[in-house]
Specification:
Layout lengths: L6 H22 L4 H15 L7 H8 L3 H14 L2 E5 L7 E5 L1 H21 L5 H20 L12
Antiparallel strand pairs: 1-2
């Protein structure tokens, strides 16, 4: 049997490499470790600030364990990125609300990430980018047909 390079392995390798590259660029731009590691959660909160969001929603959305999300929320709160507010109907629940500081950090980090993406995508045509998105969509559909129910696979908006 002839050996084929595994797309799953290559995607994992590229994901790690891209994460390291973006992390290095954000570090150079002066962002702290919590934003480098979990900035996408802050982004989610900023893009859904008109929605009531609880910790459980983040756990579900990002397929993360409760303890990890609790730690991230605690760090975000200590940094002033979010505040928690008791729910009016059930005081056991705490709404997560992005502060002005959190919005500013998100906005600034996104500028850096967009600049980093431009560096990564240099020389890639729109047609090549669309082909890659189509491949990601096919992989996602194949996993769904195989019964994969966990997680949210995001390819394009």
């Amino acid at each position: 049997m002839e050996h084929k390079e595994s797309l799953g392995w290559e995607l994992k390798r590229m994901s790690n490499t891209i994460g390291s590259f973006i992390g290095a660029e954000l570090t150079k731009a002066g962002f702290d470790e919590i934003i480098i590691t979990h900035g996408w959660i802050l982004g989610y909160l900023c893009h859904h600030e008109d929605t009531v969001i609880y910790q459980k929603d983040i756990e579900t959305r990002f397929c993360m364990p409760r303890s990890t999300v609790a730690n991230v929320m605690k760090q975000f709160e200590q940094m002033g990125y979010i505040k928690r507010q008791s729910d009016e109907k059930d005081t056991r629940l705490k709404r997560i609300i992005v502060t002005d500081i959190g919005k500013k950090v998100h906005e600034d980090s996104m500028k850096s990430i967009f600049a980093t993406n431009e560096k990564m995508e240099e020389g890639i045509s729109d047609k090549e980018r669309q082909t890659l998105h189509n491949i990601f969509d096919k992989i996602s559909e194949n996993m769904k047909r195989s019964g994969f129910e966990g997680g949210t696979i995001m390819t394009k908006s």
